[in-house]
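Colleagues,

Please find the record for the two-part complex below.
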Amino acid sequence: MKAVAVAVKTFKEFPRDRRALAFLLLFPVIFVVVFGSATFDSGSSTAPHTIAVISEDEGAWILNNTTPEFHNFGEEFTGVMENATYEDSTTRVFRVFRFDRTEADRLIANRGLSAIVTIPANFSAGVRAQINQTIYTTLSTALVRAIAADNFTGGDFGNYTLPALEPNATASVVIEGDFTYSEFASSQAYVQGFVDGFVEEVTRIATDEVLKRLPPELQAEVDTTDHIDARTHGVAGTEEFEVFDWMAPGLFVFATILVALAVTTWVAREVEGGNLERLKLSKMGTADFLVGLLIPWASLGAAQVALLFGTAILMGFSWQGGAAALVLAIAIGTLSATASVALGLLLVSFVKSERQATSIGPLIIIPIAFLTEAFFPIAFTPLVQGSPWGQAVRAERGMLTFGLPFEQVAQSVLFMALQTAVLFAVAIVVFRRARLVAE
Amino acid sequence: MDPAIEARGLAKRYGDFTAVEDLSVAIPRGEVFGFLGPNGAGKTTSIRMIAGLTRPSAGEVWIEGSRVDTRARDHRGLVGLCPQDLVVWEHLTCKENLLFLGDMYAVPRRENVKRARELLVRLRLEEKADQLASKLSGGMKRRLNLALALIHDPPILVLDEPSAGLDPQSRIVVHDFIQDLGAKEGKTVILTTHEMDVADRLSTRVAIMDRGRLKVVDTPERLKNTVGEGDTVVLRLKDASRAEEAARAAGNVEGVRAAVAVSREVRFQALNSVARLREVYGVLEKAGIEVEDASLRKNTLEDVFIQLTGRALREEGGP
């Protein structure tokens, strides 16, 4: 009952404290409008492209003269990309990471990577087919020339066994990324170039090996069919989205993080004004106060997400998942606001005035907001996963931007709920000791 | 019968600083008990310990016969506190302020509404019932501040400087109200003040505090009588540096008692004070000490304070 009275009181105060309400509702809306109107540039063209390489290459046996040798050309190709530098520069073309599929998918969704390069299981077999076809074509062309010139003696050709052709052995390197991300476009072009270059180099070496053993009149370079190619795929759910579509869910969560700052300021005002001390003498318990505070602030968080969602749609946010995703996104926003209330209570345990709250609060809250991947990808994922707001951004973005079903973001929501519960428990203990017992 | 409140050897220390030392008082039910002293005397710290807001470094507080444990909540609701600062919820109306705090004390809804209405009427705020507290004048806010302390009808009321910053009209309303609380409603009222006339007028008994220590406790009349019979004469000197010399000279005049120097003034008690004043004037004139102004009045609690401490109430730094 007392908790309800605290909640009702706070609900009454919200519209009467216009300054605080404007900060909470209009400030995030301005963010959404600004980001929705902005255009984004990928930056320098000679910076390394951050890519993940997933090599599934199983390797292949190749005859070197008559000696069989095992090669994994997938590893060799990856090494070539790792060591490549821009022309007349020591800057590497790629920063190559070897993530598993799940991690690569997560990072590409958050733009932590510009592309995922998958080397197929038959890559080495494809290279072997390319080599064999080159040898076969070069030798057979020389043989035809010798016969036509009527000087075929069978001499040198007797040392060769024509290799078996593998016409169906074609390996495709898959380059995946977000088509709307300009960084992907340039990364994809570079990877494509490296695949083509690798095939050309393999072909050239095989050709040279054959030609150097033939008399000059029989030497001729020939065209071959490529057994290696590169294909480009868009990452599921990203084919049509723009930068703002990626950012909007982060902005929704950012707004709920601001609740922490508002709660800190709000309660600090009650501390400074002596109101909390007045309540300390009453029969109100810690739980009454916290629950009474949580109800209106979490509701405000839900309202914020709904308001920002509407604003984002007006700014061109193309969202996935339908009405169910929207309802879940609001629920996640409410949970995020709950975590923010806990953070606010924790902070207000260490500040005694509204002025301290407004000066110290942002020092804590803004870095937390940046570490959630709300605005840009974070390479060090524990920083993101360690906070309930980071999990909230991941879940909201997964559903609204990438159209993932709830089951695929449920783990993030579960972690978020657990982290919020722990944060709240800590906040209750610290706040009670600092503010609700005799000094 | 147990006293309403009893403090036994209360002390509060903050590091090396002692705010209150060895405070022991017993306050019976229905008494209006005043803590009088200058700013920094330890009055507010004392009542905060009594109200359970500050944990004593030593000593105990007993309310209605049971010891107060600041960690427990069983004494909550027995004390109503009216802080010195204006502690109201600015974005709630007067009525909402009272009803909200009543809810926090678990006052039944119907009774809460009734008491809120009564308090608004008694403190002349009924016309402002639906006005936001932020729109009230300072005096009205202070009256609302007082009403909030009473919404749960506590048997004990603690008022910290209840007259501070009040306009004359509000002052009359508040003083009459406090007197009625003790006299008509039988509530135990503890108030702090640095205004001697407030303590004198409102208090059944007065405790004079200075530098964290309790100097004396008694009724205002008896305290004033300890200064002596007769009147108090106050001479204002032109040269403050000769006040000590003037006090010694005045003290040598027959019939003059308790002559003290207080900044630029010399104060003494005397029967037949007009005749004594003429003689003191003569002595000072002979010594070349010029008197700028002279006044004659009945003894006050400030005279008691001066006698006890050698300083006036308003001299915060003091010797």
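The interface with chain A takes residues 51-55, 70-71, 73, 76-77, 79, 81, 83, 85, 87-92, 96, 100-101, 103-106, 132, 148, 152 of chain B (CB under 8 Å).

Comments are welcome before we finalize the supplementary table.
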